[in-house]
Amino acid sequence: MSSSRIGLKQAVAANRLAWDASARLHQDSARWKELTAGFAAPGFSTFDATMTRTLDRLELQGLSGVQIGCNNGRETLSLAAFGAERCLGIDQSEEFLKQAEILKGIAGSDCAFLQADIYALPQGIRRDFDFAVITIGVLGWMPDLDRFFQAVAGLLRPGGRLVIYETHPMLEMFEPAAEQPYLPAYSYFEDGPSVEEYAITYDGGTKQAAPPSFWYIHKMSDIIMGLIRAGLTVTWLEEHPHSNRETCFDIYENQRAQLPMCFTLAAARTGG
To answer: DSSP per residue over 115-143, as a string?
Structure first.
């Protein structure tokens, strides 16, 4: 089957295998050592200045939160630094959630982690969280944004809030490794996934073979309309000129004609 015709279940299952195969590389990295040392201290957070300001604005003290696509749990655990309580991290990668449990033990946290496909959440999962968090890269792994946001909205109580900190879709048009990296390499209107057969790493430096993974480019209108169709009301949207992706994307910062490189967005669940 061509990558443009792969089904949702097939793409989700393939991405799970790719992430599981990549987990060891993350645990062998210098970043892992920083995390284990950091979470041994109270109040440790891995969020950058932009996300810190965003979460401070939400006033999370005493509130319950859920993170969708929590990876190794570092950000779910970091929510405690903002006063959040009873937090849950959801991810489909068993291998990364094993790392999350290690960090949880180091932090002495009471948060929980759940291995699940966001498109097929188990019966009995809590659906009254005060807020939800989606961060860098999660949307690109989602074959169907409408169904994704409907699942996210279903985890929130009425009036519950969603905060997103993601790569700007405009940045997805560029390839930093290209011969001419400042010329668009991909269409903003791509309608099928790109396929990668290398391990997934944040530094972009490892080219170790891994099961194929499928990455989707979503327009900003796809994101906004997906939120609206899921019954979420956007309360703010801010675009930023810095990169929150792999370091290779840093070449697009501080340009005279500056691209939007990431964005923060907040929305609230309406209705009962």
So the answer is: E--GGGPPTT----EEEEEE-TTTGGG-S
